[in-house]
Amino acid sequence: MNEENQISYYSVIPATIRYDNRLKPAEKLIYGEITSLTNRMGYCFAKNKYFSNLYNVNPHTVSQWISHLEKLGYICVELIKTETKEIKERRIYINDTPYVQKNTYPYVYKSTYPMYKNIQDNNIKYNIDELFVLIINNSKKIPKKFYVILKQLDFLYKKEILSIMQPEKIKMLKDIIYILFDLYNSEFRYLLLQVQRESLLNLYILAQEHLPDDLLNYYKRSIINKYTNNST
Asked: Residue 199 contacts by C-beta under 8 Å, 6 or more apart in sequence?
């Protein structure tokens, strides 16, 4: 995946950043650059080398800028590691509510879809919010194999990351996980060996654009149609 292909035309530098005298002008600028690179799931994955080439500075200087922004609570940095503890990816999240304030978890709000209306296979025992709370708390009630699937798809987020994600991103994450769990408990479980993260995100956004009466069922059918067609 290429950082340049993901860049947005606009960047955002709020007043809290612009008028913070503790920040260097370059740190304010790179904050804006991070906002323009933040993707649909709410994080920027650009490396220090990308920023250093962009602004013609040393990667170590970029690292110091990012560390300072994190120290002041304006961003949150998460390192994704492999099983051998090697760093696979860095994710930078914009913290709309700096850590000097108390964060509340936005995933506790009531879902617009408290129960999956037209579900055929009733093996799924939880509503959207219940399932999400169980998963973020690593509950043993959820099969280990399902956690493996979520991890492979990068849909397992730490609580501190969830606490700064925007409500619409949380809702999308909850809906996607819910439908994946529904598929896991159905005759379509085999499809979970084929699905890809980017495709799941794109299908969800397309489903929203169609404004269906039942978003979740529409989204589920979209996944099944795409991947059963691909396998034939």
From this structure: 226
Q: Is 163 exposed, middle or buried (0-12, 13-18, 19+ CB in 10 A)?
A: buried
Quote the CA–CA distance of 116 and 95 in Å, as a whole number. 32
Measure the CA–CA gap between 204 and 222, rounded to whole angstroms.
9
Domains in the chain and their CATH numbers?
Answer: 3-94 (1.10.10.10), 106-230 (no CATH)
Q: Which two tokens stand for residue 206?
A: 């397309």
100-116 per-position pLDDT tens digit: 333 444 444 344 444 33
| Max CA separation in the chain (angstroms) | 60
Cβ atoms within 10 Å of 141's Cβ, excluding its own:
11
Angle CA 46–51–54, to nearest 5: 125
CB 127 within 8 A of CB 115: yes
71 φ, ψ to 5°?
-60, -35
Residue 201: other Cβ atoms inside 10 A: 18
Residue 173 burial (C-beta neighbours within 10 Å; 0-12, 13-18, 19+)? buried
pTM: 0.65
Tell me the mean pLDDT in the region 145-153: 94
Single-letter amino acid code for the residue at 135: I
